[in-house]
Specification:
32% of the residues lie in helices and 24% in strands. The chain is of the alpha/beta class. The mean pLDDT is 95. A hairpin with a 6-residue loop joins strand 14 (290-292) and strand 15 (299-303).
Length: 442
């Protein structure tokens, strides 16, 4: 039996593997007295908004409690999707056919936008349009994928293909699933490099990036706003809050409590294996696609940008857990799909927050005069970039065409204050049980 310690390679780290090439750098920690637009949150959404606002001639300051890009933007799996989760939702029942289609189209537009952003700004982030394989956990899941494959192709403008179980090895070197769907509207990148490149682009455009400043409150002050921080106060003509999965800190503080009550932060965990032979990677990942399965408590995994190791993510725990404790759980998930990796050790394990909403939709809008952009459901690389851009157009008065994700009803739950830790283990356990029941029935 393998002991927990023996699964770790020498020099094992609990920081993101991405940081080996692109750890978020320290930037300007000096709080200005005022700003035209203050953006709270220095991740993809905030940086994208800053870049767009500068292109439109607005003075912008981005504030982050940590380093710029320190949160989910440099911790995620680097999978770039074209709004696949939104296009897969049961929107018709809630909104009706035409509004549902408009919402799906608005989400799908995130994919061409991030590709355009990377190309326009010359961001070196190992981007590749590689497609995604969505393996089915059960035969019923396969049928559900097949039923919406044409709609996803229509919404994204790129093909989808169904692979039955007998052809699964064309996309994944495993017999663990029941076939699946290939969606071409998907890519991969190095999230740390992308966060740094987007920050550098905003910086070049003239945005001021201030790190190590925690915003504790925002209130209207005459025709503008006053932001209180742990380094003093500043004034802004307009404010955008783009804190997503970090909208409430461990002490319960929030720059915008109204938004925090609508965010469900969930810890996502990732491991990185040691380097693997090229023939092993070719066998396990033919086509080098991104992978995310159909379980309720899903696994997502991929080859590294250099194609020589595996990055594996999932919900190893539904409560705060140290990465080194979560790592054996994720490794167990990995071995269930790839048993041949039983002797492969791990070099890194880390965690970061993703943010879900109660309606499973992304949102932009305005509350009490404060703009917000949030709720990417764990698929925020393209979506957060897109939401930030759209929120910036709204702030600048340049949103001439309207946006289907703007101003939607943004639900919360009674008595919810932004801390889900008391109910997440219950909900997560129930979802895991349902996954096991579905699999047993299959």
């Amino acid at each position: 039996m393998t002991s927990a310690n023996s699964i770790f390679a020498p020099g094992f780290k609990t920081t993101p593997w991405w940081w080996e090439a692109a750890e978020p750098p320290a930037r300007d920690g000096v709080l200005p007295d005022s700003a035209g637009v203050a953006i709270v949150g220095g991740g993809y959404a905030g940086l994208s908004a800053a870049l767009t606002l500068r292109r439109l001639g607005h003075e912008v300051t981005v504030l982050d409690a940590e380093r710029i890009g320190w949160g989910a933007s440099s911790r995620n799996g680097g999978m770039v999707s074209g709004g696949l989760k939104v296009a897969s939702g049961e929107l018709n029942k809630t909104y009706g056919a035409d509004p549902a289609r408009a919402i799906a189209l608005a989400a799908a537009a995130s994919f061409p936008f991030i590709e355009e952003t990377i190309a326009r700004e010359g961001i070196d982030c190992d981007y590749l349009r590689c497609g995604r394989f969505v393996p089915a956990w059960t035969p019923k899941h396969y049928d559900a994928l097949a039923a919406r494959a044409d709609f996803i192709a229509e919404i994204t403008g790129l093909p989808t293909h169904m692979l039955p179980k007998g052809r699964q090895h064309e996309a994944l070197g495993s017999d663990h699933y029941y076939g699946g769907m290939i969606a071409e509207a998907s890519g991969s990148l190095h999230p740390g490099k992308y966060a740094r490149g987007l920050a550098d682009a905003a910086d070049r455009a003239g945005a001021r990036l201030v790190d190590g400043v925690r915003v504790n409150g925002i209130r209207q002050d005459g025709t503008g706003f006053r932001l209180t921080t742990d380094r003093g106060a500043m004034r802004a003509d307009a404010v955008l809050v783009a804190t997503n999965g970090y909208s409430r800190d461990g002490q319960g503080r929030s720059a915008m409590p109204w938004l925090a009550r609508r965010m469900i932060p969930v810890g996502s965990y990732i491991i990185a294996t040691e380097e693997l032979p090229a023939d092993t990677m070719d066998r396990l990942f033919p086509g080098r696609r991104m992978i995310s399965d159909t379980r309720r408590v899903l696994n997502y995994f991929r080859p590294s940008p250099y194609g020589n190791r595996i990055l594996w993510g999932g919900r190893a725990s539904f409560g705060p857990t140290e990465p080194a404790i979560a790592a054996p759980v994720l490794r167990g998930f990995m071995l269930s799909v790839f048993p041949e990796l039983k002797d492969v050790r791990l070099t890194h394990a880390w965690t970061g927050n993703v943010a879900f909403t109660f309606d499973f939709l992304p949102h932009i809008g305005v509350q009490d005069g404060i703009h917000y952009a949030a709720g990417c459901q764990g698929s925020g690389v393209a979506m957060a970039t897109w939401l930030g851009h759209r929120a910036a157009l709204k702030i600048a008065g340049a949103d001439n065409e309207g946006f289907a994700l703007d101003g939607l009803n943004f639900p919360t739950a009674p008595l919810y204050n932004g801390n889900p830790n008391w109910f997440l283990p219950i909900v997560g356990g129930w979802y895991r049980l349902r996954d096991h029941m579905d699999r047993a029935a299959a």
